[in-house]
């Protein structure tokens, strides 16, 4: 190199290095400059899908940029989570799903399509409980009746599938009370609720929206809900804690996750946007119709909550020998 050019070149290189962070920050300030993908790890029409679409609609209007919901269901949310984990950490791919993909599946599945640490929580968006219901022919009218009858003889309870929230709740009741509940898995909450109505099983612990029409029709007897608060859809049904069984509390958390490399400024921007969306009356009305309670937990608090749940489920799975069929 010509000696007289070395000093100017070094100065230019240094200037570029100093400018790079500023340029990156400027790009993040302008986020998003292209469509954002919301990958929902469960089928269309479910609570996580409808929640993702409600939020996408709000953010699209706020940012004047497309927010596209893409469904990638399978393996208890693993397929969608694996796809997002392999995506660039630039804020343009966000996973919508439920906590069990991260708190249960690693303890149930022999192999996972993503590694711990490849994804991090953007926000715990909402929570919901399950409705404990039985067929009227069982003669069970209260949660106390259920526990007494279940200690005397085994009862068959439907779930939305092995490893589903209903299955986990059944195993938690078995562990906490000694009640004999045999889990009968179905392909989703709707057929599992229909099985209760048909008398194929004694009862079920299932999503409230799936059970409530049958409760209102007198075809299912509602005993309790497993959430911390009463369901907005069934305010007349007490929580398990109100009935004196706080150990039977069981909730599903609806989460938004991003690749671990997503820049902090983009994370903060997305957090603020999601919080604003969840606070809107129209979004809250849609959430209430889905039996979702807003949470809005972010950062270290969200990571801690998921970690504590993961350890709880690890112990539950070990104690009960749960398996994915």
From TrEMBL:
Xref: InterPro entries: BUG, Bug_dom1
Keyword annotations of the record: Signal
Highest taxon of the lineage: Bacteria
Cleavable signal peptide: 1-27
Family the UniProt entry places it in: Belongs to the UPF0065 (bug) family.
PANTHER family: BLR1237 PROTEIN, TRICARBOXYLATE-BINDING PROTEIN
Protein name: Tripartite tricarboxylate transporter substrate binding protein
Species for this entry: Cupriavidus basilensis
């Amino acid at each position: 190199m010509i000696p007289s050019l070395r000093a100017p070149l070094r100065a230019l290189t240094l200037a570029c290095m100093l400018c790079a962070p500023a340029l990156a920050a400027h790009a993040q300030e302008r986020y998003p400059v292209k469509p954002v993908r919301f990958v929902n790890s469960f089928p269309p029409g479910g609570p996580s899908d409808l929640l993702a679409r409600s939020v996408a609609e709000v953010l699209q209007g706020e940012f004047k940029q497309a927010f596209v919901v893409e469904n990638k269901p399978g393996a208890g949310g693993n397929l969608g989570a694996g796809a997002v984990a392999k995506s660039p950490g630039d804020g343009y791919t966000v996973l919508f799903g439920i906590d069990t993909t991260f708190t249960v599946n690693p303890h149930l599945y022999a192999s996972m399509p993503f590694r711990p640490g490849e994804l991090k929580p953007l926000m715990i968006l909402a929570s919901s409980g399950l409705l404990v219901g039985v067929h009227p022919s069982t003669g069970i009218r209260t949660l106390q009746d259920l526990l007494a009858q279940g200690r005397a003889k085994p009862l068959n309870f439907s779930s939305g599938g092995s490893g589903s929230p209903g299955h986990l709740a059944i195993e938690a009741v078995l562990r906490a009370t000694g009640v004999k509940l045999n889990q009968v898995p179905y392909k989703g909450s709707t057929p599992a609720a229909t099985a209760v109505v048909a008398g194929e099983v004694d009862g079920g612990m299932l999503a409230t929206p799936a059970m409530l029409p049958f409760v209102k029709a007198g075809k299912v007897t509602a005993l309790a809900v497993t959430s911390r608060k009463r369901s907005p859809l069934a305010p007349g049904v007490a929580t398990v804690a109100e009935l004196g069984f706080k150990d039977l509390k069981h909730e599903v958390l609806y989460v938004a996750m991003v690749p671990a490399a997503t820049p902090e400024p983009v994370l903060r921007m997305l957090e603020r946007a999601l919080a604003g969306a969840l606070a809107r009356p129209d979004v809250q009305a849609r959430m209430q119709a889905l039996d979702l309670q807003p949470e809005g937990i972010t950062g270290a608090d969200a990571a801690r909550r998921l970690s504590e749940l993961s350890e709880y489920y690890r112990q539950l799975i070990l104690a009960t020998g749960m398996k994915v069929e």
